């Protein structure tokens, strides 16, 4: 806070030429800014001071009298202006006091007006059954959420009494209406508390949903099971379609599992049309989850792969045993492979291109174990040719065994250069 002596010191510095006039002006501004502004002092609540904020003399006199009854005898101009802005007049203060709200401050009076909590609104709520001891925060909450006396009255008439404001607001916000309550009771759902009713409304467990589920044969479900069905799309139509498709007597968890994993009636019928019959729930779910679709089945059968069980079909799909791979393997001369052999070939990179490269070297009729071993060791065509040239006396099986066991093979280039043997670089090129 600046003082007169500080200001005089700055002026002396300017007159002595120790600082410039501009610097002195900046110092004076800084000193003035550091001086706190005096806070508005409350004035006595009287007709003159109240009227000074914009009320008429008669309004000022009435308001001053009502405020003094509440024990408010001093007020500042800003508070008066706020009250005037929001029409906090003598009548409003008088009526609020008559309703029992005598221990009230100015901010609360203004806030009630801002939230449209009028004495009439309070009287109507009380007439509809609201307790008289509801505080201002609850009244403001009720008004803010649109809670009407008519809604409160209807809820009490429907049998829901003794609900506090928070519970009433939750019901109103979540469309738990008296009509909803009556319809739920008619559908057989009774004695639900507020949380359960809100849960039903939020999750689509309506009276219509209940009746339709019962007509579809799903009865005696508790609230959590009903919510689970609604949330996961297990509708009455889905239940009826599953039963028509032959999947009966499923509990809620099984129905949800079917729906969540795409094991629909349409999928089941398509699988049967593709030749897979007598699937149980787990088979259906596994097929769908692993991509074993009716289309996949048709393609596998067209490629000559028949009579596979669900586990074998899943094994093929998961390991990339496609129709294209099977056809390519046959074109390359590899036929009559079982599922395990096909999976092994696919897993170890034994492709049709790889097999054709071996055929070009004259390596035909190899067993799957030979093909896998060669592919795993990454034998190159060039390296294989060198091994064959270095060991012309070995037959195919012996040559494959030699290469796959990673024995020392003669490197022809090294042999030419030094006459010594080294290891052949053995990586089969994969086209």
Structural class: mainly alpha
Identify low-pLDDT runs: 406-431
N- to C-terminal distance: 86 Å
The sequence of SSEs as H and E is HHEHHEHHHHHHHHHHHHHHHHHHHHHHHH
User: Radius of gyration over alpha carbons?
Assistant: 45 Å
CA-based shape: elongated
Task: Output the number of helix runs.
Answer: 28
- Approximately what portion of the residues adopt beta-strand conformation? under 5%
- The total strand number stands at 2
Description of the structure:
By secondary structure, the chain is mainly α. Among the domains are: 30 residues, no CATH class; 58 residues, no CATH class; 97 residues, no CATH class. Helices cover 60% and strands 1% of the residues. It has 28 helices and two strands. The protein has a two-stranded antiparallel ribbon with strand order 1-2. The protein is elongated, with a radius of gyration of 45 Å.
Give a brief rundown of this model.
The chain is built from 28 helices and 2 strands.
Q: What's the structural blueprint in terms of helices and strands?
A:
Blueprint: H1 4-15, H2 21-33, E1 43-44, H3 47-51, H4 57-69, E2 74-75, H5 77-85, H6 90-98, H7 106-114, H8 119-127, H9 136-144, H10 149-157, H11 165-173, H12 178-186, H13 194-202, H14 207-215, H15 223-231, H16 236-244, H17 252-260, H18 265-273, H19 281-289, H20 294-302, H21 310-318, H22 323-331, H23 339-347, H24 352-360, H25 368-376, H26 381-390, H27 396-404, H28 412-418
Antiparallel strand pairs: 1-2
